[in-house]
Amino acid sequence: MASVRSIFKILLCLLLAMVLASVGLYVYFGWKVEERFAGRLWSIPSYVFSDSLILYQGQKLDPDMLVKMLEMRLYRPAGRTFRAPGEYIVGRNRVEVWFREFSFPGKELPGGKVVFSFSKGTLEEIRSNDGKPYVYYELEPVELARLYGSERECRILVSLSSVPDYLKNAVIAVEDRRFYSHGGVDLVGILRALWVDIKAGRIVQGGSTITQQLVKNYFLEPERTIKRKLLEALIAVIIETKFTKDQILEMYLNEIYMGQRGGVAIHGMGEAARYYFGRNVEDLTLAEAATLAGMIKAPNYYNPHEHPERARLRRNTVLQIMFELGMISEEEFRKASAEPVSAFRIHQPVKRAPYFVDTVMEQLKELYPPKVLEKEGLVIYTSLLPEMEVQAEFSVRKVLQDLEKRKRAGEDQRTLQAVLVAVQPKTGAIRALVGGRDYATSTYNRVLYAKRQPGSAIKPFVYVTALHEGWTAASWLEDEPLSLSVGGRVWSPQNYDRRFRGRVMLRDALEQSLNVPTVRLAMTVGLDRVIDMLRRFGFKSSIEAYPSLALGAFEVTPLELAAAYTAFANEGDRPFLVSIKEVFDSEGNRQQRKHVEWSEVISPEEAFLITSILEGVVQRGTARGLKAMGIDFPCAGKTGTTSDYRDSWFVGYTTDLVVLAWIGYDDNKPTGLSGASGAMKIWAHFMKEISPFLNPQPFYPPNGVVGVEICEASGAAATPYCPSTRWDFFIRGTEPSISCPLHKPASELPLWER
């Protein structure tokens, strides 16, 4: 009897120990589960988006252009049997688009059908599906890059409410059909899978529930041991006691591995829907949902891009199971099974606009630590207009290739480099930025870091200094031989054609880019005053007070020069350049916002006078070749060529865009290209290609400017007797106060001049 009691006590103690151990394990792992799920569930990379694009009635646009915009945003032609968000149809002078909803922190754009009608190369009308007219329509931003951490995982988080029933049912049918009835571990499912495997003589089905798969992916190492399986089952049961079934399913749908995009792992159904089918998850069709559910078993093996037939057979297996379980009707099963696998292969680089994205990254690193950028799902909206960026990259490549084709055999066969940067002068928004001809071969961002001599492109800043000091466009400058002692040596500047014109007006000297009058002007105004003006325009480079600075004999970066020219196009105000517009966290809270800011550099009157002269550069001066290149809209600009043709520059602008182009060699060797024969060609090619996004207006004089007809021989107010006159602009109060003394009526002339 005593021995029975002893055994009973031992068993009771063992049972108590087991209960205590179980409670301890439950408490410990329950705490671990709560701790893990209380924090950030996933490492989510930051998204970098472009600016959105506004389309409006009357815009110069045709159906082909709109289709390219849609394809850039991962839209595709619609199928024959149905229409779904993310698709379009091109008809006669019209494009019908089924827009996806764009829903990211900080920006919401509605979906729905929109019809665009065209006539003679113009967007004539925009209407919704119910006939409602739109004056304009906003196209969604383009994803430029994601800033991955060491895990290199990409996912778009989805809520269960946005997941269509088709997809939820497909996943449950093929992965865990008793999901809503078991407690985390499905003994019935395990026995059924074991029986199927025994009959097949191989492993055909797994017994893991959705909850166990979540545990395996989220908590445990991928090792095949009994200990791991027991832990998997234990934690699955604990999770089931702490979360609802819908919460568990939502976590699973966001965590599950769904294949590879290059070196980046695709996780979750939101990312998979976008990558494989170009859709938001809520827009998936039954066939697409079944395809994704079928991929869970072996994502790369059933990849519909690489193995469409395998994917089709697996999809139909999923559809068959759904039909047998009563989740879909026979009609739905028949139609979905007959559909081809319509996976949408995305030819999307991991990083679009790479030089621009690098520029954005440099700024972000000053605002956030790397872990925040890589793991906390920030959403960064930038100033880039992707349509402009694509054309900028194309123009750089195309013109450089054309220039290099013209090289003769035996000539220097090195690779030319080029940059292009486009800035909105009213806001400072950088709309396009190309830091080299090919990012794959050189990531060096020449827009930001290349220090090059600007040559004649700096001359407008010398002339605006003179205007600021009271000179006018009709002031006279001497174009005679000049010798100066500089550093113990004699320096004699020459004009590009090595000719001297005697006496020239200030306007003509800048329009024709004459060196000698420019140096004389800088010396007369004062080199220190010129340097002060350059500083006001934002130049930070080292500038010595030598006469050659008037010809650009110092170094600047292309971005410095482009930023300075924005003041001419913006009535004398230089905006601070903007590449990042807004930053939001994953909860939609605004972290950063860049407001439009600027500094007043010169007066609107002075800015207009320089612009008027630079219009003359395009019409009559060193950039007059633009007309033959197809540039027929109001614009102003300045060529720049440095000694021995080492640098070729052109900076030109309209009322709504400043664009700088540069060509040169990285080792600073001569290119043989002037500003007009090199960089200006890139500028012209780019401006023609982006004409749908420009609305150039004439440059109108401000109230403080007056127009006066002057005599070209004297520069004074013209009389009826002056044989050659022209209109010119003056700041009010500086216009000629006397009439031309050279040309008078015969009665007033001396006898020997009659």
Automatic annotation (TrEMBL):
Molecular function (Gene Ontology), one example: peptidoglycan glycosyltransferase activity
Catalytic activity: [GlcNAc-(1->4)-Mur2Ac(oyl-L-Ala-gamma-D-Glu-L-Lys-D-Ala-D-Ala)](n)-di-trans,octa-cis-undecaprenyl diphosphate + beta-D-GlcNAc-(1->4)-Mur2Ac(oyl-L-Ala-gamma-D-Glu-L-Lys-D-Ala-D-Ala)-di-trans,octa-cis-undecaprenyl diphosphate = [GlcNAc-(1->4)-Mur2Ac(oyl-L-Ala-gamma-D-Glu-L-Lys-D-Ala-D-Ala)](n+1)-di-trans,octa-cis-undecaprenyl diphosphate + di-trans,octa-cis-undecaprenyl diphosphate + H(+); Preferential cleavage: (Ac)2-L-Lys-D-Ala-|-D-Ala. Also transpeptidation of peptidyl-alanyl moieties that are N-acyl substituents of D-alanine
Domain spans labelled Glycosyl transferase family: 151-322
Keywords: Antibiotic resistance, Carboxypeptidase, Cell membrane, Cell shape, Cell wall biogenesis/degradation, Glycosyltransferase, Hydrolase, Membrane, Multifunctional enzyme, Peptidoglycan synthesis, Protease, Transferase, Transmembrane, Transmembrane helix
Pathway(s): Cell wall biogenesis; peptidoglycan biosynthesis
Regions crossing the membrane: 7-31
Bifunctional transglycosylase second domain boundaries: 55-133
InterPro entries: Beta-lactam/transpept-like, Glyco_trans_51, Glycosyltr_51/Transpeptidase, Lysozyme-like_dom_sf, PBP_1b, PBP_transglycosylase, PCN-bd_Tpept, UB2H
Function description: Cell wall formation. Synthesis of cross-linked peptidoglycan from the lipid intermediates. The enzyme has a penicillin-insensitive transglycosylase N-terminal domain (formation of linear glycan strands) and a penicillin-sensitive transpeptidase C-terminal domain (cross-linking of the peptide subunits).
Protein name: Penicillin-binding protein 1B
Species assigned in the record: Thermodesulforhabdus norvegica
